[in-house]
Design brief:
InterPro entries: H-rev107_PLA/AT, LRAT_dom. With 180 residues, the protein is α+β, with helices and mostly antiparallel strands. It has helices spanning 2-16, 80-84, 104-113, 127-136, 142-179, and strands at residues 22-26, 31-38, 41-47, 70-79, 90-91, 116-120. It folds into two domains: 2-140, endopeptidase fold (from Nostoc punctiforme), CATH 3.90.1720; 141-180.
Length: 180
């Protein structure tokens, strides 16, 4: 029954979409992104081997080496239903208030201009970067920004804890020396 409600939700969404809208497909650990071009078709950046589109992440394909881009991803046109894969998709033009979108025609032209093989980097050139570039002319990924913020905060906390621990240990040694 839950699956039926997701299908109904996606059918309603598909009727409301206009060319140039961005679609977010939430997966288990991340969201996949695409640009709607009309006629139930989307343009999106996905790996050669359906890498990650269905929520199945192959850890060997997540990162490139030292930021070096490899030609392992493909911008392609696909039917919405082939990409949705059970996700409760949503229109996500959330940057429209901050960044004026290009015209619908320009967005669709941007998306179609990249059809074919291009490089991929999960941190600098992923499906969200691609979709937002098509709509806003910005190479941006909120998912990556959030991840990097949490990683930086985690690193800062761990570093501070390590320093405090080291200081407390050296203070205890000094105290022990003074007692002798």
């Amino acid at each position: 029954m839950a699956q039926l409600s997701v299908v109904r939700h996606n059918e309603t969404l598909l009727q409301e979409l206009e060319p140039g809208d961005l679609i977010e497909f939430p997966r288990e650990y991340y969201s996949h992104w695409a640009v709607y071009i009309g006629d139930k078709k989307v343009v999106h950046l996905a790996g050669d081997e359906n890498d990650g589109i269905n929520g199945q992440i192959d850890a060997d394909k997540l990162m490139t080496i030292s930021g070096q881009r490899f030609g392992k991803a493909l911008v392609k046109v696909e039917n919405f239903w082939n990409v949705v894969d059970g996700s409760r998709a949503r229109k996500n033009n959330n940057k429209d208030g901050k960044h004026p979108p290009l015209s619908k025609q320009e967005i669709v032209e941007n998306a179609l201009s990249k059809i074919g093989r291009i490089g991929y980097n999960v941190l600098f050139d992923n499906c969200e970067h691609f979709a937002k570039w098509c709509r806003y002319g910005l190479n941006k990924s909120d998912q990556v920004d959030t991840f990097l913020t949490f990683a930086a905060v985690g690193t800062a906390i761990a570093t501070t804890a390590g320093i405090l621990y080291g200081l407390s240990r050296s203070g205890a040694k000094e105290k022990k020396k003074d007692e002798l």
